[in-house]
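Colleagues,

For the teaching module next term, I've prepared a clean inverse folding example: a structure given as tokens, and then the sequence designed for it. I'd like students to try predicting residues themselves before seeing the answer, so please don't circulate the second half yet.
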């Protein structure tokens, strides 16, 4: 006999555990099912570990090249095993924190692999082989995704996904990275700063497809200035051959064939949803031809009572997007809420960092707005200068008629933090005057946002019109 549950959530990543806590706060009886580690990809093998390595690499660069500020560190070196231990300590504290929050909110946690057996029943296979059947009133699918494996480049000892790339205990001398999206660029930047020679191989004409060229060019220039980085664009990787101590990649650029030998190769061409592992055919839940679950603005799937959030849905695979969807799905169990994809920021922890929210200038024009854009440089910001990091800009896309902020793009120091203020501005439909009237602390990087708003209004203080 199936045991009855009110709300069952598959997966405890940033979409699943947030949905569980929110549903419990609404007074629902909630059960989460996790087959691997609480916290999902983000906390264990994604967002948090990658940002830890990026931070380590950045600090190492500062140690080696602090001469501009009169700071010199002799014999600076990296102990990668200690870096990994520090990184894992962060992961452990965060995952333990998630377990504590789930328990504190009265959420039941079941360890095992979940599959559907009917539109309202799930079977959970536990480690000992026993099967538990659960009949639910509502289900939220937050099963996440996994790295895409390319034909001709099967996973092996030296052909690695991002998961293994984040767990290396030694710094490879040479790394080839297939895929120049945000995962490839972040990993490449981190390992190049830690001491590896990195070759980035991207199939399109530039790194970071989807970001404005003016932003991407800053990242490419910074990478090109590192003698330890090579960038190949418009390149199609055809095959790879593993040897005991190396891997050789063969790729095509136009009519020319290139070969590249490295110690390891990271394959970072994207991720695929884990929906093929759920037996969704038993439910009537519709998926597209890539396996993504079709949902509406309420995160509801085609089958009544079933919702889906995070990487199992089409769209950017972002942890904060998954968390927001999780809240929306939980709020729609007995209530009503919708998600506005336009106000979900995108961030790349490159060097410099890139962040954007809302509409780009071209998108605003296409949608019929009388749009203008203004850009204020970090080179005119005192705090950026004291960081010795004043490259980049804050750009606002504004509806000239109404003065409302339609979108924003930031390339520069702490872009990942600064974008939050502009996300609030876009979401709340604030005007450039609203932002300009906010007193920003001096000296701070946030002043660039006020300055960009004043520039858009036509009376900048720290920049000539």
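(Answer key — instructors only)
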């Amino acid at each position: 006999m199936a045991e009855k549950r009110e709300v069952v959530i598959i997966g405890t990543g940033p979409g699943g555990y947030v949905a569980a806590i929110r549903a419990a706060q609404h007074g629902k009886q909630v059960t989460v099912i996790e087959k691997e580690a609480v916290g999902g990809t983000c906390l264990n093998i994604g967002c948090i570990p990658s940002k830890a390595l990026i931070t380590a690499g950045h600090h190492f660069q500062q140690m080696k090249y602090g001469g501009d500020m009169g700071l010199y560190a002799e014999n600076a070196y990296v102990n990668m095993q200690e870096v990994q231990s520090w990184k894992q300590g962060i992961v452990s504290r965060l995952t333990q924190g998630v377990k504590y929050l789930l328990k504190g909110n009265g959420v039941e946690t079941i360890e095992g692999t979940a599959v559907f057996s009917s539109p309202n029943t799930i079977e959970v296979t536990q480690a000992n082989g026993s099967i538990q059947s659960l009949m639910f009133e509502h289900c939220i699918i937050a099963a996440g995704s996994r790295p895409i494996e390319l034909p001709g480049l099967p996973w092996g000892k030296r052909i690695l996904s991002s998961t293994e790339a984040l767990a290396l205990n030694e710094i490879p001398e040479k790394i080839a990275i297939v895929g120049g999206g945000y995962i490839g660029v972040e990993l490449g930047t981190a390992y190049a700063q830690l001491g590896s020679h990195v070759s980035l191989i991207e199939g399109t004409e530039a790194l970071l497809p989807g970001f404005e060229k003016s932003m991407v060019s800053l990242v490419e220039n910074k990478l090109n200035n590192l003698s330890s980085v090579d960038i190949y664009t418009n390149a199609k990787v055809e095959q790879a051959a593993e040897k005991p101590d190396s891997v050789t990649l063969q790729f095509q650029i136009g009519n020319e064939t290139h070969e590249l030998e490295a110690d390891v190769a990271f394959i970072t061409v994207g991720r695929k949803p884990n929906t093929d592992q759920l037996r969704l055919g038993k439910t009537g839940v519709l998926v597209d031809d890539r396996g993504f679950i079709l949902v509406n603005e309420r995160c509801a799937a085609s089958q009544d009572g079933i919702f889906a959030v995070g990487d199992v849905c089409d769209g950017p695979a972002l942890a904060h997007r998954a968390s927001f969807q999780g809240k929306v799905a939980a709020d729609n169990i007995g209530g009503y809420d919708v998600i506005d994809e336009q106000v979900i920021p995108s961030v790349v922890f490159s060097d410099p960092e890139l962040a954007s929210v809302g509409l780009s200038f071209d998108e605003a024009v296409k949608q019929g707005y009388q749009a203008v854009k203004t850009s204020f440089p970090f080179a005119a910001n005192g705090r950026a200068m004291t960081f010795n990091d004043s490259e980049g800009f804050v750009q606002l896309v504004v509806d000239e008629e109404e003065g409302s902020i339609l979108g924003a793009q930031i390339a520069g120091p702490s872009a990942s933090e600064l974008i939050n203020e502009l996300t609030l501005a876009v979401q709340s439909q604030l005007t450039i005057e609203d932002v300009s009237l906010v007193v920003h602390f001096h000296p701070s990087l946030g002043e660039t946002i006020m300055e960009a708003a004043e520039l858009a209004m036509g009376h900048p203080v720290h920049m000539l019109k």
